[in-house]
Amino acid sequence: MPTREQLRIELKQRRDQHSETECEKLSVSICEHIRRSKLFINRQRLALYYSVGNEVNLEHLFHYAWALNKTLFLPVLSRFPKGHLWWIQYIENTPMYLNRYQIPEPVHSGHARRTKLRSLDVVFMPLVGFDDKGNRLGMGGGFYDRSLSRCFRQSTTWHRPVRIGVAYSWQQLTKIPNEPWDIPLDAIVTEQGITWF
Hints:
Layout: H1 4-16, H2 20-36, H3 38-42, E1 45-47, H4 59-67, E2 71-77, E3 85-90, E4 96-98, E5 104-106, E6 122-126, E7 129-130, E8 136-137, H5 143-154, E9 162-166, E10 187-190, E11 193-196
Parallel strand pairs: 1-2, 1-6, 6-9, 9-10
Antiparallel strand pairs: 2-3, 4-5, 7-8, 10-11
Helix pairs in contact: 2-4
């Protein structure tokens, strides 16, 4: 079986073979599936993300969410502890900057009040690959797994945000070798719809 790093390289190459136009078209379809879902309609506090390269683009959801008076949050790289994410509230016209991975983040002070994960209803996550058991293969930095681990392992299901992976259908693998620290997905959304695990 290929290693996680081999799978990651293969899937990134596969993603890069698709055109920006094709990925944008599929992203619109994925956002429509989310927008029409009960998950989106009935939840108030949503953590989204800004895409990089050919990742699924969720920006189409931002204005839908604001029109419904939902509260949006974006991940930012934590200053402490390192290797973790904070979630910062994101409103329209919030100034942005590029972090060290060239991902847009809301401008915030070093002492910004971060949002407790338990207060979020849904966390939408980008990924490189997924399988039909809800295993997620990320970019390799472990930011989401580290950030979600305490909430996942020490909270009841009623106090955890719903974890939704966002991907194209061609990012699905038969099996992803998982590690003890991996945090599984509750569902995956692709251009084909939402699948719950």
